[in-house]
Automatic annotation (TrEMBL):
<dbReference type="GO" id="GO:0016829">
    <property type="term" value="F:lyase activity"/>
</dbReference>
<dbReference type="GO" id="GO:0009063">
    <property type="term" value="P:amino acid catabolic process"/>
</dbReference>
<dbReference type="InterPro" id="IPR013342">
    <property type="entry name" value="Mandelate_racemase_C"/>
</dbReference>
<dbReference type="InterPro" id="IPR034593">
    <property type="entry name" value="DgoD-like"/>
</dbReference>
<dbReference type="InterPro" id="IPR013341">
    <property type="entry name" value="Mandelate_racemase_N_dom"/>
</dbReference>
<dbReference type="InterPro" id="IPR029065">
    <property type="entry name" value="Enolase_C-like"/>
</dbReference>
<dbReference type="Pfam" id="PF13378">
    <property type="entry name" value="MR_MLE_C"/>
</dbReference>
<dbReference type="Pfam" id="PF02746">
    <property type="entry name" value="MR_MLE_N"/>
</dbReference>
<dbReference type="InterPro" id="IPR036849">
    <property type="entry name" value="Enolase-like_C_sf"/>
</dbReference>
<feature type="domain" description="Mandelate racemase/muconate lactonizing enzyme C-terminal">
    <location>
        <begin position="159"/>
        <end position="271"/>
    </location>
</feature>
<keyword id="KW-0456">Lyase</keyword>
<dbReference type="InterPro" id="IPR029017">
    <property type="entry name" value="Enolase-like_N"/>
</dbReference>
<dbReference type="InterPro" id="IPR018110">
    <property type="entry name" value="Mandel_Rmase/mucon_lact_enz_CS"/>
</dbReference>
<protein>
    <submittedName>
        <fullName>Gluconate dehydratase</fullName>
    </submittedName>
</protein>
Length: 398
């Protein structure tokens, strides 16, 4: 077995050891896995792994071989986690997700130890601020409780409801919006086969038309389908939405079949986006190389961390493809993505998916909201440039 242990030496002032790793699960609109790494230098790093169960247990498991490691080696440590847990499904899934959150905390630590912002460690700086698109819901498009999807009443999905919410969020300063387009009517007349009736497609077209009419073409617009449809229905839907100049139609078919994904993308001039539920660059390479997607959307807190996201972005840049990371995080994961936005030349927009969480900005200690006029400034402070308000974290623990 390859040995990714700490065998290389450093000068004494950079010989630091991890002394503890902890996870706190905060109940936002999703379960946010906030990771804290302590060191013998008295410096603490914070990170975030993608939402949901299983991650805290895996992070706890990694302590048996990460205690004593030097936090200045984020990429090597991710390799060690994957290698040590390869027999636990470590090359994909929850292990890589947990490693992603640990890696973010390690970059925060490295920046603080060396006195530079994370972007300075990751590469060249291309921009001073990152543009945000806001994930919106007309009424309550769906509510998450214990990982289940529960649709609201039908009137929550009227074109008028979508248009009203689009206008409201635009007036908050966002120049790019995304809505969910999977609806209760998708399950009629059959609940499971993924086919859309003509009426269902027309209902979606009217929603898209209403939003576009309300916000005009100065605001960018995308819609998310959450992997719901058959290939033929996805193609019919994408064709129907071509007149509305979308940024993208996201995840119209299930994610597993590469050939099907390529078929949908090549059949329409509506841009297609996907990528959030794939792990490590290996699971995204063919998607990029074969142009099975127009906009790639990996989640840095899932895919393997910040360095792995840059690897994905490099592949995408070779194919002249933009990257817009998926992000349903607290301010911690969001700011990690902002540092990526600074260093990736083909970076487009970053998702923000917590508009309904009125205490989102209370989680950090900055005096001003992170998002201003639909953008987040790239911080110049060491590390991620953000610190948690522990009292607020404790008040919202799951």
């Amino acid at each position: 077995m390859r040995d990714y242990g700490n065998h290389a030496s450093r000068s004494a002032d950079r010989t630091v050891e991890i002394t503890d790793i902890d996870v706190r699960v905060v109940a936002g609109n999703f379960e946010w896995n906030l990771i804290t790494i302590e060191t013998d230098a008295g410096i603490t790093g914070i990170g975030e792994a993608y939402r949901g169960g299983g991650v805290p247990e895996i992070v706890e498991y990694t302590k048996r071989f990460l205690i004593g490691e030097n936090p200045l080696d984020p990429e090597r440590i991710v390799r060690r986690i994957v290698q040590e847990m390869s027999g636990h499904g470590g090359t994909t899934g929850k292990v890589v997700t947990a490693a992603s959150g640990i890696e973010v905390a390690l970059w925060d630590l490295a920046g603080k130890i060396l006195g530079v912002p994370v972007y300075e460690l990751l590469g060249s700086k291309y921009r001073d601020e990152v543009r945000i698109y806001c994930d919106c819901h007309a009424g309550e498009a769906y509510e998450l409780e214990d990982g289940a999807t529960a649709y609201a009443d039908a009137d929550a999905y009227s074109p008028e409801a979508y248009a009203r919410e689009a206008a409201r969020v635009r007036d908050l300063g966002f120049s790019a919006l995304k809505f969910d387009l999977d609806l209760p009517s998708d399950t009629h007349p059959d609940r499971t086969n993924g086919r859309l009736t003509n009426d269902a497609i027309e209902e979606k077209r009217r929603i898209v038309a209403a939003v576009r009419d309300e916000i005009g073409h100065d605001v960018d617009l995308a819609f998310d389908c959450h992997w719901d449809y058959s290939v033929e229905s996805a193609k019919r839907l994408a064709h129907a939405l071509e007149p509305y100049d979308l940024m993208w139609l996201e995840d119209p078919i299930p994610p597993e079949n590469m050939g099907a994904q390529i078929e949908v993308t090549r059949d329409t001039r509506t841009p297609i986006a996907t990528g959030e539920n794939r792990f490590q660059v290996h699971e995204l390479s063919e998607l990029i190389d074969e142009h099975g997607v127009d906009v790639i959307t990996p989640d840095p807190t899932t895919v393997g961390g910040l360095a792995e996201t840059i690897r994905v972005a490099d592949r995408a840049e070779e194919e002249y493809m933009p990257i817009s990371p998926h992000n349903v995080c607290s301010p911690v994961g969001t700011m990690a993505c902002v540092h990526l936005g600074a260093v990736i030349p083909n970076f487009d927009l970053l998702e923000y998916h917590a508009l309904e969480v009125d205490w989102w900005d209370d989680l950090h200690t900055r005096s001003e909201p992170l998002i201003r006029d639909g953008t987040i400034a790239v911080p110049e402070e060491p590390g991620l440039g953000i610190e948690l308000d522990d009292d607020v974290v404790e008040a919202h623990l799951l």
